[in-house]
Amino acid sequence: MFTIMAPVGVAKLRARLFLLFLCLTLRAGMLQFASATIQGYIGDRDMICPSVCRCDEDFIYCNDRGLSSIPSLPPSASVLYLQNNQINNPGLPTSLERQLAIRVVYLYDNELDEFPVHLPPSIRELHLQDNNIRTIPRSALARMPLLEKLHLDDNSISTVSIEDQAFADNPRLRLLFLSRNHLSSIPSGLPASLEELRLDDNRISTIPTHAFRGLSSLRCLVLDGNLLANQRIADDTFSRLANLTELSLVRNSLQTPPVNLPSAHLQRLSLQENALTHMPRGSLDGMHRLLRLDLSGNNLTTLPRGLFKDLDSLGQLLVRGNPWHCGCNLRWLYDWLHARGNTITVRGLNCHGPDRVRDMALKDLASEMEECELVRTRDRVGGGGVDTSTTHTPPQGSLFTLRSKRPGLGLPDSGLDYTLSSSGVGKSLALNVKPLSHNSVRVTWSVAQPSSSFRLSWLRLGTGNAMGSITETLVRGDRREYLLTSLQPRSSYIICMVPLAASSESKGAISGDADSDEALVCAKAETSDPTPLEEDENEDSKKMTVLPLAGIVGGATAIVSLTLIFGIFCWYGHRTGHLCTRDHYTRKNSRKKKSCDDYIESGTKKDNTILEIRSPGFQMTPLAAGQPMQPKPLREDYIIHTIYPSNGTGLYKGDNHVSDAGHGTNRGYREGGIPDIDYCYT
Q1: Which residues, given as ranges, of the chain have pLDDT below 50?
Q2: Angle at CA 535, nearest 5°, toward 530 and 536?
Q3: How far apart are CA 672 and CA 662, in angstroms?
Q4: Pick from 131, 91, 134: which is nearest to 109 by CA?
Q5: Angle at CA 171, nearest 5°, toward 165 and 173?
């Protein structure tokens, strides 16, 4: 029996062990399920999107919500759109610094008045434009060492409000926008990694030599809408930017392009809407990679020959809004454009003069340019001629011009071609003259020491040795070039200059003292023959000058004749009695139409409803046709005044106007819009 019960005990033991194993297995599964559920809940909680925002994976859209503070964000957020809200500096939570996944933040068009300081250090791109930020502290930027793009347009940042070395801790900054702020100079301490710098629409007027020092990586520089002039830009300012590919100087006060422009890599040059009057020869040399040149909206009349000799890659030339003079001076440009063919797009190269080619495109002047070729051939055969392809340049800036009857200058031998000379008091002056056309000469000079002003004189030489009158003018001391115009063609001129000291400026323009004679430097220039196009233009200008004079004389004669005829007619009518006498004359304002057979003049309109005549008075009666008028008494007292109906309406008031109790007095009439002539008593 014992042997039979043994197998039964083993079976029960096995069953109990199996149940125990099953329970343990179920418990382990439940624990795993609970753990997974808790982890999933936590994961879902991490991805909760703010109720006022919209989320798309790691892009959080909270823009245009009227928010005054930034809501709690999920840790996975990488791009925040917070623009067009009312977020101020207290609305930036300190917990934002721990959001290490954020790379881009859009906070433009909010109410920030200080640079935000609680931004995460992982930011690469930050948009803060359209706020009221006034300062840029170094400590705030130092919290973002990975920053690459910073937009600070349309704020209130001035040059002095940018802390010294503010960008020193941002070695990766590649793009900096500071447009439409209050900058008066280029910010200092810009990082060497900068590739694009926009400073347009500020108040920058001066660019010193060191302004762009160390910015060897800069490729795009925009300085539009500032106060830049040639005199306030250092000569080697832009030459340091060896890798520059785009330079924009739109809407400034430049008269010529800045000197020493970077040429190796420049692709886009924008100089429109300045005051350019001259493009110096060589100002575009070496720009073999230039693709787009914009000279629109200036005062250019011509371009010097060879200006585009290195522009092999130029594809766009924009020159609209300039008064181009399409004479032989632009024959080289005509040939250059035809040689380029369809490889270049030109906009706005339309002629402003001479009149025979006005509003025509330069490339369409085939016949006119053939005439220039004939003139050039003739000049080669004769051995004369002058290169007239140079621009008519800088505006004249003389203070005043005097004509002296006596030759107060000791002019050298007219047969010599004068070169450089030095003054007897240790000041040197180099003078250079160059004919530009048949009636203009360009004068340039350089001095070793500054002078308060210069006296410039020129004399036209005749066929004999007799000297004519000398024309003198004073030139400001900061000028280095002058344009002589209205000269005689085919003439020789001696042009002299002398620097004036501050004490002798007032008398140097009139008297020639010994010191001035010793410092005198002269040169000789000869004007050329006018070209056929210029002769036609001169003829047209002479005709246009004669026509207004003839019109003025003819008009004056006609007016005098009509006045005499009208006077004779009035005198004759007065003598024959067909006109009203002086006693019955009335002003223009009283009646538009009046004849002699009307009522006797009473000073009011013919309306019995608004006229009250008190004794002694007189009676107003119509006169029969042809009945002679009775003479008026020598003196009578009349009491004539306007009577207004009881409802308050009157001559100058509409039916809807409410009557004023004050109309019983002159003040009431005046305030009611009634002219003084209608409430005065006679």
Answers
A1: 1-4, 38-46, 379, 381-426, 464-467, 503-517, 578-627, 632-633, 638-682
A2: 155
A3: 9
A4: 131
A5: 95
* DSSP per-residue letters across 275-308: ------TTTTTT-TT--EEE--SS------TTTT
pLDDT digits (tens, 9 = 90+) for 566-612: 888 887 777 665 444 444 434 344 333 434 444 333 343 434 444 44
Three-state SS string over 150-195 comes to EECCCCCCEHHHECCCCCCCCCCCCEEECCCCECCCCCCCCCCCCC
CB 195 within 8 A of CB 218: yes
Contacts of 411 (CB under 8 A, 6+ apart): 459, 467, 494, 496, 522
Alpha-carbon span 530 to 364, nearest angstrom: 23
Give the helix/strand (H/E) hosting 379: helix 366-382
CA distance 132 to 106: 15
Give yes or no for a contact between 501 and 425, defined as CB atoms under 8 angstroms apart.
no
Cβ–Cβ under 8 Å, residues 494 and 411: yes
Helix or strand or coil: residue 513? coil
Render pLDDT for 174-202 as a digit per residue (tens, 0 to 9): 999 999 999 999 999 999 999 999 999 99
Residue whose structure tokens are 């004919």: 435
According to DSSP, the residues that pair with 325 across neighbouring strands are 353
Q: Which residues are paired to 246 by β-bridges?
A: 220, 268
Helix axes 331-340, 366-382, angle to 10 degrees: 120
- Beta-bridge partner residues of 481: 444
| pLDDT of the residue at 417 | 41
Name the one residue in this structure whose structure tokens are 């954020």: 102
Q: How many C-beta atoms surround the C-beta of residue 542 within 10 A?
A: 10
For 417, phi then psi, to 5°, come to -100, 105
* Three-state DSSP class for residue 386: coil
Q: Could you give the CA distance from residue 564 to residue 136 in angstroms, rounded to a whole number?
A: 80
C-alpha distances out from residue 12 to 19, 546, 608, Å = 11, 139, 142
